[in-house]
Amino acid sequence: MRAVHITRLDGPESVEIVDVDEPAARDDAVVVDVHAAGVAFPDALLTRGLYQYKPDLPFVPGSEIAGVVRSAPEGSGFAAGDRVAALTGLSDGMAEVAVVSPDTVFKLPDAVSLTAGAGLLFNDLTVHFALRERGRLTEGETVLVHGAAGGIGTSALRMAPVLGASKVIAVVSSEAKADIARAAGATDVVLVTDETGRGWKDAVKELTGGKGVDVVVDPVGGDRFTDSIRSLAPSGRVLVLGFTGGEIPTVKVNRLLLNNVDVVGVGWGAWWMTRPGYLATQWAELEPLLASGKLTAPEPSVFPIEKAAEAIASLENRTAAGKVVLQLVR
């Protein structure tokens, strides 16, 4: 089978497309013929050995797939021919065949294409956990999304209104990214710095009539973190999802006292891995929303497998538009 291979830790440019043996089938696992694989920021970190998970070289990156079931254990709820999305862990996804646990496989609604399905689980389940479990989003609240044109950002823009947000404000770095954010569902879009030199914090203050926002979704970190705290309404929450900006910020905890606000860590993987059945609970809520169209499927940027290096690099250099997906079918 064809697979994306990392043989040295020199960044995305070290990516190779090779033929390797298919993974061995197991009696307790679902075998999936992979049509598409999601690309995420950890994949870029893995190519440089900068992620906390450090697989032995060589390895196949990728944590999420979509495809068609080839075989499945009796009683698993899956059968040959089923269209599914699946989580593979933090590696092995960018290959033409995957062997995965039934607990991390999910039937796709007919309304969701395999390409969209490959970009669905990692971001949508993370954002669902962030807003529902950690952010305690309630009806009528206002959500601010940093990195709003990226995979996590566009997922938050799609999902927040479905979970009750009345206003969803996107923060982006360019007009091109503003268009992506509006298409994903932002009610308002502000630039990190606009043409007059006004920063996003002041723009958000104006949009909220000085009140501030209830929830900040922040996969970026870096120098905008303190202003995120300052932008909160009383009892507001900043949700920390990652640090694509490079710098891990620190918190002066006296700021939390001033307005009774929270900084909340969002570690979706650590959560579901210690709570059997949690993923199924999430999918039980999201699947009908996707099937009905109430929650729209992502519209990913699609790269052929031959351009895997370019796809992974787009996460590292922050040029990615929305979710990035590799197409593996010939």
Automatic annotation (TrEMBL):
<protein>
    <submittedName>
        <fullName>NADPH2:quinone reductase</fullName>
    </submittedName>
</protein>
<dbReference type="InterPro" id="IPR011032">
    <property type="entry name" value="GroES-like_sf"/>
</dbReference>
<dbReference type="InterPro" id="IPR013149">
    <property type="entry name" value="ADH-like_C"/>
</dbReference>
<dbReference type="Pfam" id="PF08240">
    <property type="entry name" value="ADH_N"/>
</dbReference>
<dbReference type="Pfam" id="PF00107">
    <property type="entry name" value="ADH_zinc_N"/>
</dbReference>
<dbReference type="InterPro" id="IPR036291">
    <property type="entry name" value="NAD(P)-bd_dom_sf"/>
</dbReference>
<dbReference type="InterPro" id="IPR051397">
    <property type="entry name" value="Zn-ADH-like_protein"/>
</dbReference>
<dbReference type="GO" id="GO:0016491">
    <property type="term" value="F:oxidoreductase activity"/>
</dbReference>
<dbReference type="InterPro" id="IPR020843">
    <property type="entry name" value="ER"/>
</dbReference>
<feature type="domain" description="Enoyl reductase (ER)">
    <location>
        <begin position="11"/>
        <end position="326"/>
    </location>
</feature>
<dbReference type="InterPro" id="IPR013154">
    <property type="entry name" value="ADH-like_N"/>
</dbReference>
